[in-house]
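Reply to thread "Modeling small-molecule complexes from scratch"

Following up on the discussion above, here's a worked example others can learn from. I took a protein sequence and the SMILES for coenzyme A and predicted the complex. Inputs first:
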Amino acid sequence: MPFVRARMRLSQLPGGNAFDVNQCHTLVDDTAWVFQHPSGTVVCRPLRVEEASFAAAIEASRFQPSTSISTFESLILGQSGVCCGIFIDETLIGCAAANITPALDGFASEAFFDNISILAEHSGRGLGLMLTSYLLNLCSGSPHHCSRATLEVRIGNVAAKQIYARMGFTCHGIRKRYYSHPTEDAEIHWLENMQSPEFRVVLSESVSHALELFHVKHLHRSEVDS
Ligand SMILES: CC(C)(COP(=O)(O)OP(=O)(O)OC[C@H]1O[C@@H](n2cnc3c(N)ncnc32)[C@H](O)[C@@H]1OP(=O)(O)O)[C@@H](O)C(=O)NCCC(=O)NCCS
């Protein structure tokens, strides 16, 4: 299935035209976001089963205990999860996954974030924020229609917490000594109202901000290289 359906030029960023996630949503039919940039083409899309080992390797390089290849394969092939990646010039540099609890007896579907990882050499360029926005877009869209999402995060994971706060997650509790190597408490975060028009605005603004970060970091790298 072709996944490149929509393209956006970044030459107007930052400032200029904000990214309109609703427009992208219509154009790409939920399959992919594609952004053209002087430093490369950035694509977010669902992962294919043959990419499970690459995703597992990326996660193992950033997070322990990490998700196995077979679990990634199940998430990709199954109906009860969402698994996606972010690519620069067709190279996978980050992955994210969520399990979905389907709607039941009047309760709306909920997304449980498994993890998100960006390769260390690509961290801090807005790509984690971009991929989180894409994952939440998949969870909130058809066929899952999630209205809530939850996750656990290390209390000291500043970058991840910054992303989740920008998406509207708030902390609702602590799991004491939940993580090992090193031992650390986990914060339990929830995001509500994912079907609201306000959440569509949050998604659009988050992607715009991610694109600005990517643009600024690219300019910075160019200056360092020259
Ligand atoms: C957490 C992670 C996914 C973030 O992805 P990233 O691409 O590095 O982050 P981004 O560049 O999108 O930055 C998002 C925000 O965090 C901030 N940030 C990024 N790295 C940071 C750091 N080391 N310290 C403080 N803030 C940081 C950015 O400034 C940005 O903030 P802003 O929205 O206010 O501008 C990535 O660092 C990672 O893979 N970490 C290891 C795995 C992990 O911890 N996953 C989360 C499990 S819950």
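What I'd highlight from this example: Residues 1-18, 24-29 have pLDDT under 50 and may be disordered. Strands lie at 33-37, 40-46, 81-88, 91-101, 110-118, 148-154, 170-179, 184-191. Questions welcome below.
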